[in-house]
Design goal:
Layout lengths: L1 H15 L36 H5 L2 H14 L13 H18 L7 E7 L5 E6 L2 H19 L15 H13 L4 E6 L3 H4 L2 H11 L3 H11 L3 E3 L2 E3 L12 H18 L3 E5 L2 E6 L2 H18 L10 E3 L9 E6 L2 E6 L1 H14 L8 H18 L6 H23 L2 H10 L4 H8 L5 H4 L3 H6 L2 H7 L4 H8 L1
Length: 469
């Protein structure tokens, strides 16, 4: 127990005052190093248990893999302010004590750090960031439990599961619609991650995991609480978004909904807490909405958001950012208006004439944003959309150049260098028109040409889409 107490004391010191002198930096060649958190496996009376799941979680190989994943994912610090870069040294020094305290049932997880991020609706989503040590432990638990529960999960569940993606979910939706299921029951769970009932969740875990020590450790993480303005607040319900264990716990809970829908023979697709059910008539859809809502609220003790849950044609709904439209060859995918608007706002921010700074850096940020967005929405038909966005983005870049040239003399000289006549260059250098209006003028289109923008580093949305579609 002395080692356990020593480890707890070291964590407390780190949490209260982590000075620059005590900061431990990892010196390596950039690769994630393997570390050992475990001594030789010791079997004695106190570890005798119906299942050896906890020992599997604490095996050297499993913990090393958990460390590597946390290291690769980086992420922010928890309430103790220990960063991912400091993690390896801490675990090298205290790994044995950490493992011992978990085996003895003495380990107490730290509360999560509250972080709020804006949502599309204008509201804020609350995240809970665990300490980096707790992230390693949660990841180690997840790696062992995932294969156990994966066997029980539905084929219509796609979120946070190996070899499954949002694209697979959207394709399944398209299949159902083309089979004639032309009405959708779109169920929205209100503050799902904040309302998960701990007792129901623990009961579901215990059906597959018989090691009481693992159940106890998971319960501790559920009850760890959240740190708000320096005060730890207990959590009696909910699974904090941001933890490595949360996606698995989310699927375990909502797998009960999957079982119920499957038992009823319904066509559905679920991605995390987003669930769409497909039926053939409005009457059936209304009936399913009422009965499934009763099941969710009475059996799972979750809350269905009546305002956002809806019955409608799939062509008028948004699921994972996608929607659908009718064509001669059946129903096809398109990007919903909301993500298009949000994407355009992001591009507008990156090309803001007052903040663009170094244009080469702006090109790199634009490329990252464009490639990521198109890779996600590549299943949709959006050739025309890409062409329109290309024209709009090129105009914004011309505006940025015009803004950066500032002085009349600079504009005059640069226009001449790019091929404008002296008279034309002088006329437009002295224009009183605004930046955005000038960006659409023929003189800029013929001097700051599409080819020159591409050569400078501006990525084409149309060409990027053509490569992946």
């Amino acid at each position: 127990m002395k080692g356990t107490e020593k480890y707890a004391e070291s964590r407390q010191l780190h949490k209260e005052d982590y000075s620059q002198e005590s900061r431990l930096e990892i010196k390596n060649n950039g690769k994630v190093q393997s570390i050992s958190l475990t001594p030789e496996m010791m079997q004695n009376g106190r570890n005798a248990c119906e299942s050896m799941t906890l020992e599997r979680i604490l095996e050297r190989q499993n913990l090393n893999e958990a460390f590597k994943r946390v290291k690769r994912n980086k992420g922010s610090y928890g309430i103790d302010k220990m960063t991912v870069d400091e993690l390896q040294q801490n675990l090298s020094e205290h790994g044995v004590e950490l493992r011992e305290s978990i085996l003895l049932g003495a380990y107490v997880p730290s509360p999560v750090r509250r972080v709020e991020i804006p949502k599309d609706t204008g509201k804020k989503r609350q995240l809970g960031i665990p300490t980096v040590v707790d992230r390693v432990i949660q990841q180690a638990i997840t790696q062992v439990l995932n294969p156990i529960f994966e066997k029980t999960f539905s084929d219509n569940s796609f979120g946070f599961r190996p070899k499954r993606s949002a694209h697979d979910a959207i394709k399944r939706c398209q299949e159902y619609i083309n089979q004639g299921y032309g009405w959708t029951v779109d169920i929205d769970l209100q503050a799902y991650f904040d309302t998960v009932n701990h007792d129901i969740l623990i009961g579901l875990i215990h059906k597959e995991v018989k090691d009481i020590r693992v159940i106890s450790l998971i319960r501790k993480y559920l009850n760890a609480g959240v740190m708000i303005d320096g005060v730890a607040k207990a959590t009696e319900d909910g699974v904090p978004q941001g933890g490595n264990l949360s996606p698995l716990l989310s699927n375990i809970m909502l797998n009960e909904l999957d079982k119920e829908l499957t038992k009823r023979g319904l066509k559905y697709v679920r991605y995390a807490d987003d669930c769409n059910i497909y039926v053939k008539s409005r009457k059936a859809a209304n009936r399913v909405m009422a009965s499934v809502t009763r099941f969710i609220e009475c059996k799972l003790k979750l809350i269905v958001n009546k305002e956002k849950s809806t019955v409608d044609k799939p062509q008028r709904l948004k699921f994972l950012g996608y929607s659908f439209y009718n064509s001669e060859n059946g129903v096809k995918m398109r990007v919903h208006e909301k993500p298009i608007k949000k994407f355009k706002q992001k591009l507008k921010f990156l090309t803001g004439r007052s903040r663009i700074g170094n244009i080469q850096t702006a090109y790199e940020k634009l490329k990252q944003a464009i490639v990521g967005w198109i890779n996600y929405y590549k299943l949709a038909d959006m050739k025309g959309l890409m062409q329109k966005l290309d024209e709009w983005l090129r105009r914004r870049m011309r505006m940025c150049y015009w803004k950066q040239w500032k002085k009349i003399r600079t504009k005059f000289e640069n226009l001449q260098k790019l091929g404008a006549t002296r008279q034309t260059a002088w006329k437009h250098a002295n224009t009183r028109k605004g930046y955005w209006r000038t960006s659409n003028s023929p003189v800029l289109a013929t001097t700051i040409t599409n080819a020159r923008l591409k050569k400078a580093g501006l990525v084409s949305l149309s060409e990027t889409y053509a490569k992946v579609s």
